[in-house]
Amino acid sequence: MLAQGGIAASLDPGDTPAEHEADTLVAGAHHNKKTAVKQLVTTGPTLIKRLIAAGMPFAS
Asked: pTM for the whole thing?
């Protein structure tokens, strides 16, 4: 009845963009657009940190 969603980014020092990229490709059964996944995992952490700094609340 309710949709679940979220934003994922590698913010933890133990998680790398390369690991996040591999996980995302597996989750998408490799049907993902690889250039979009690469952009997501490389720019995502910076953009999420900007949102947090601006006061956006996130649950972890």
From this structure: 0.74
List, in order, residues 6 or more apart from 25 with CB less than 8 Å away. 32, 34, 37
**Predicted confidence (pLDDT) per residue in 10-59, tens digit:** 888 888 999 999 999 998 999 999 999 999 999 999 999 999 999 988 87
Sign of torsion over alpha carbons 21, 26, 29, 30: positive
3-state helix, strand, coil in the chain (%, to 5): 50, 0, 50
